[in-house]
Automatic annotation (TrEMBL):
<feature type="region of interest" description="Disordered">
    <location>
        <begin position="1"/>
        <end position="29"/>
    </location>
</feature>
<comment type="similarity">
    <text>Belongs to the MCRIP family.</text>
</comment>
<dbReference type="GO" id="GO:0005634">
    <property type="term" value="C:nucleus"/>
</dbReference>
<dbReference type="InterPro" id="IPR029428">
    <property type="entry name" value="MCRIP"/>
</dbReference>
<keyword id="KW-0963">Cytoplasm</keyword>
<protein>
    <submittedName>
        <fullName>Mapk-regulated corepressor-interacting protein 1 isoform X2</fullName>
    </submittedName>
</protein>
<dbReference type="Pfam" id="PF14799">
    <property type="entry name" value="FAM195"/>
</dbReference>
<dbReference type="GO" id="GO:0010494">
    <property type="term" value="C:cytoplasmic stress granule"/>
</dbReference>
<keyword id="KW-0539">Nucleus</keyword>
Amino acid sequence: MTSSPVSRVVYNGKRNSSPRSPTSSSEIFTPAHEENVRFIYEAWQCVERDLRNQLSGSERGLVEEYVEKIPNPGLKCEFQQKRVSI
């Protein structure tokens, strides 16, 4: 039985002098990123408005919370245990 040589990872010890991430507090966002953030923010504002209207009784059935019939205990997290009131 022949044995093949074991490959090893060898590091040269040199560090790259360029920074891996921006070190300044101001980050650069692309116009596409800003558009996505604006879209999500506006959509979430609509959901919150609809939920407030639904809770005040002026409208019904706009926002529905999904609740599993048989919840998986392995998927429980802190967020699910804390109820947020609006």
